[in-house]
Specification:
about 325 residues, alpha/beta, Quinone Oxidoreductase, Chain A, domain 1, Rossmann fold, six-stranded parallel beta sheet, oxidoreductase activity, acting on NAD(P)H, Putative NAD(P)H quinone oxidoreductase, PIG3 family
């Protein structure tokens, strides 16, 4: 069953690895959903750091994924592949994609799509999947964060950061964060952070140690932050690494890890199995979507660009001036 999508569609391709200008409009064939998949007529697509890494040639898509960038989108189900039964044509969804979101149509596994949360627009809903899948799977499942614990997220004004602050607060944690300006720190405090640390002016290590240390740290920076994170953890604390903006190699004294019974873990979302992502989707529906319905977790949107202006969206992303998510408007 389908809405009879066209044969071709407008999309944004990566013409070669490089700066945002390599993102160019193109016309490509509309994908066909295979077993267990759905096809989404995209209304909005989220812009995320992995998209920029892929554009730069530093994050190759999985072999079976679309070469087009875009890891999340919202819209209407336009076709249902064989064996797919969770959705019907016309349903409104927001979905985690293996790629291909910068286009008028995108396909994904049916279990990686979720209903639009009550009270949210398609524009807002497009900002949820990549960050919510990432944050929940890392702070709740890997990090084991529970109510009453101290939680530190670096880069609190990013899409991941604004989501993590709200989610951890809704889980009952005490939330601390770092950010790079007074404006960004103020935004983090408004979202529920107890303390926002401007890393240009203060060192997060003594601040967290004075509180007894962080039980869970979510870090996207890496590099010099890795040994400092170890010092900022409470005994039996957990460091969860999800990116390396400053690099992935560093000298680390594991004696402290052993003596204080620390856990260092981490993950990347895109290469994980369909089964793992489906499991995370079920968790979101049970634990996170109610937060959205209650208003304790809302997407923070920095700016919107047209699909044709994807390059401008990437310049905005890489300027580090944004607070929250950047979205592409694909259809009216």
């Amino acid at each position: 069953m389908s809405l009879s999508p066209p044969h071709t569609m407008q999309a944004i391709e990566i013409t070669s690895p490089g700066d945002p200008e390599v993102l160019q409009p193109t016309e490509v064939t509309v994908p066909v959903p295979t077993h267990g998949q759905i096809l989404i007529k995209v209304a909005y697509a989220g812009v995320n750091r992995p998209d920029a890494l892929q554009r730069a040639g530093l994050y190759a898509p999985p072999p079976t994924a679309s070469p087009l960038p875009g890891l999340e989108a919202s819209g209407v189900v336009a076709a249902v592949g064989p064996g797919a039964s969770r959705w019907k044509v016309g349903d409104m969804v927001t979905a985690l994609l293996p790629g291909g979101g910068y286009a008028e149509y995108a396909k994904c596994h049916e279990d990686h799509a979720l209903p639009i949360p009550d009270g949210l627009t398609l524009r807002e809903a497009a900002c949820l999947p990549e960050t919510c899948f990432t944050v929940w799977s890392n702070i709740a499942i890997r990090g084991g964060l529970v109510a009453g614990e101290r939680f530190l997220v670096h880069g609190g004004s990013s899409g991941i950061g604004t989501t993590a602050i709200q989610m951890a607060r809704a889980m009952g944690a005490r939330v601390f964060t770092t950010a790079g300006s007074a404006e960004k720190c103020a935004a983090c405090l408004a979202l529920g952070a107890e303390r926002a640390i401007n890393y240009h002016d203060e060192d997060f290590v003594p601040i967290l140690k004075a509180e007894g240390g962080a039980h869970v740290i979510l870090d996207m920076v890496g590099g010099s932050y890795l040994p400092r994170n170890i010092k900022a953890l409470a005994d039996e604390g957990r460091l969860v690494q999800i990116a390396f903006l400053q690099g992935s190699k560093v000298e680390l004294n594991f004696a402290e890890v052993m003596m204080r019974r620390l856990t260092i873990t981490g993950s990347t979302l895109r290469p994980q199995s369909d089964y793992a992502k489906a499991r995370y989707a079920r968790h979101l529906l049970k634990h996170v979507w109610p937060m959205v319905a209650r208003g304790t977790l809302r997407p923070v949107i920095d700016s919107e660009f047209s699909l044709a202006d994807a390059a401008k969206a990437h310049w905005r992303l890489e300027s580090s001036g944004h607070i929250g998510k950047i979205v592409l408007k694909v259809a009216g």
